Amino acid sequence: MPVNRSRKRVAPAVHQWIITLAFLCGAAGVAKTADRLYVTSSECAARDLKLVTLIERHGEARDVASNRLAEAAFTMLRARKACDDGRYAEALAIYDSVLLAPGFAQATR
After folding, report:
1. What does R_g of the chain's alpha carbons equal in angstroms?
2. Is 99 left (phi over 0), alpha (psi -120 to 50) or beta?
3. Which of 8, 10, 26, 92 falls between 20 and 30 A from 59, CA-CA?
């Protein structure tokens, strides 16, 4: 029975093609994930800045009880920890849970 030598030559080329395709797909997935992480961590930073500003304004105006401001600050620290741990959706929800003024959560989205 004759041996089909052309088939043996094609197999390594197909394997290289499959490996190259898998690499390119993986690289695209990593780039997409990295882009989403950047966007989300920047959302955390923006939300944090707005909350810090809000806490400071209420502290200067003295229109919110100090224990509520302290509670807001501790909640903000929990949100920062969640952001640092990569739990962005949870962190944004924590930021939104601070209600020092009506509409804060809606204004930060």
Report:
1. 26
2. beta
3. 92
For 4, 87, 92, the CA distances from 9, given in Å and listed in that order, are 10, 49, 55
Length of the chain counted residue by residue: 109
Q: Which of 89, 92, 57 is nearest to 75 (CA)?
A: 92
Q: What are phi and psi of 100, to 5 degrees?
A: -85, -25
Helices and strands in the chain, H and E counts: 4, 0
Which residue in this structure is represented by tokens 């944004």? 92
For tokens 């930021």, what's the residue? 95
* Tens of pLDDT, residues 4-63: 555 555 555 554 655 554 555 454 444 444 545 555 888 999 999 999 999 999 999 989
